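Let us practice reading a record.
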Amino acid sequence: MVAKKAELPVVHELSMLPKLGATRIAALAVAALSLSACEDSVGLESAPKVASVSDLGSCTVENAGEAVFVEDERMLYTCGEEGWKVELEPAEYERTCGAGVVPDDSVSKCGEDGTFTDSRDGRVYKCVKIGDQVWMAENLDFGEQVHHYGTQIVASAAQAQKYCYGDDSTNCAKYGGLYQWNTAMGFCVEYAAMGASALVGKPHRGICPAGWHVPTQGEWERLVAFVQLTDSSAASKKLRSIEGWTDGNGVDAFGWSALPGGSLERQLAWGTTCTRYVVSVCCWNEAWSKLQGAAFWSAAEEDDEQAILVGIGLSDDVKMAAVRKISTASVRCVQD
């Protein structure tokens, strides 16, 4: 007589997970999306996939340790002593996710001709000195294009994922890529819902070219202050390009040349398919903003889920506000 295999239960409710706190639970759920992007993690590509939890099958002593990706929840389940459950250790993700792998590439500085070359992909960018700062004079366009209904999970100085406005690659060529905050900072996707202040360098390169970094809120404020030195009005107009705006071209007084690159706005939406706080299309209402404004990330966090965004639109002022990190914006880098 063949002995019946000992089956272990399915554990898939948040209430049954260890009590790690709301922020940590949110981060652990998000981390399932980043496994393929972090070193020493289980790759989603190599894990078998099933449609739903009900398709996991039996968890027995024979398949203990097996990892299976559940597609409708976008979660990686592991068979263990307590049955099938989301098995994510905080210490492991704090160790493997962070600033990403910084490649050994050459540092590029703004040349006398007002350009520099990103050694990673050979792209040439315009650059300009304003006051004591040297800025990119166009938006960063680095990384592989992915469609907006997916979450950007790969982010480091060596590689990244980007959206192109309207999923049209020609818009990336014109306006640059659109990035989640965690992507701009070179962090794994779990940091879209978890504090990363301890990981932010001074300066912080993120996905900028070697020798450049993501501007701090203070650096943005210095830029605006210098622009307003000779005339305190209409800082936004002075930074906007002289063409490309539907209504309200600027004077581009300093050659900074802001274009209305738009953004992908996301707000949390609890739906019937959202069983957890997951950074996934099922849990977010999202829409392309109109091409009537420019939005840029700073390196500053507001809290675990929000970062400071800099907005240049048709009003006179340059706006700064806290928005969700999972939303997207352009990146302008500053020379180290």
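A brief commentary: Residues 115-335 form one domain.
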